[in-house]
């Protein structure tokens, strides 16, 4: 079986361009799966059944793996078997009918429009740190970037005249994302005032920088989010990813199509974006219950 695993990992690296960390995650998950199959005496691809996959997932649950970890393992198994089927190494995919653990599909934390405004208002001042933080928050909410993508943005990645930015997402894939007028103006103000004073040497290529004139870490921006949320009186636990979730949800609530949101988020698979349709459905149900006379 290990030769098939090597073929699959090579395919992911060469054809899909996945990162080293992602490849290692697939390798770990599938090595555990193949060890399980060997223990069950399943040494022939044709003999693997859906029940084998189910029992493998049950074993992961007994070992204490979270629903998210088990769903990731199932995704790896599904991709592995789909690859083997497409490459004519086996006639079918025994994992195709198996669904991920339901608790994985919990709705992501989403800020309301009012909460987003309160968060942004917490950074509206002439203080240079506030100017930077406001620009970062506006860009994050306007584009749905991952926090790792936000802090990695370089000056050359942002075209304020055209209103677009270029980011490098998962799998080393570039994508263009519209910036929006409000975020464009906030970024322009940050470049004009706060950033000029922070980059004293004028040689830092990173867009959003610390007071010391160097790039910011994800953890540093996470702390900024927590500080701003507290100042805004937002009680729920939020993170930089909360603004990404809010970006997608608010777009869909206002009529955007799922495919466009997928492109802007940088999701390789539409199924990753479909979680947000659950968000909008739940909100519609709640709205109906709150205002319908027979709700």
UniProtKB/TrEMBL annotation:
InterPro entries: CB, DNA_brk_join_enz, Integrase-like_cat_sf, Integrase_catalytic, Integrase_recombinase_N, Integrase_SAM-like_N, Recomb_XerD, Tyrosine_recombinase_XerC/XerD. Site-specific tyrosine recombinase, which acts by catalyzing the cutting and rejoining of the recombining DNA molecules. The XerC-XerD complex is essential to convert dimers of the bacterial chromosome into monomers to permit their segregation at cell division. It also contributes to the segregational stability of plasmids. The lineage of its organism: Bacteria, Pseudomonadati, Thermodesulfobacteriota, Desulfuromonadia, Geobacterales. One of its GO terms (cellular component) is cytoplasm. This is Tyrosine recombinase XerD. One of its GO terms (biological process) is DNA transposition. Pfam families: Phage_int_SAM_1 (PF02899), Phage_integrase (PF00589). GO terms for molecular function: DNA binding; tyrosine-based site-specific recombinase activity. It is found in: Cytoplasm. It comes from the Bacteria. The keyword Cell division applies. Belongs to the 'phage' integrase family. XerD subfamily. Residues 106-289 form the Tyr recombinase domain. Forms a cyclic heterotetrameric complex composed of two molecules of XerC and two molecules of XerD. The active site is at 146, 170, 241, 244, 267, 276 (o-(3'-phospho-dna)-tyrosine intermediate). HAMAP family: Recomb_XerC_XerD, Recomb_XerD. Residues 1-85 form the Core-binding (CB) domain. Keywords: Cell cycle, Cell division, Chromosome partition, Cytoplasm, DNA integration, DNA recombination, DNA-binding.
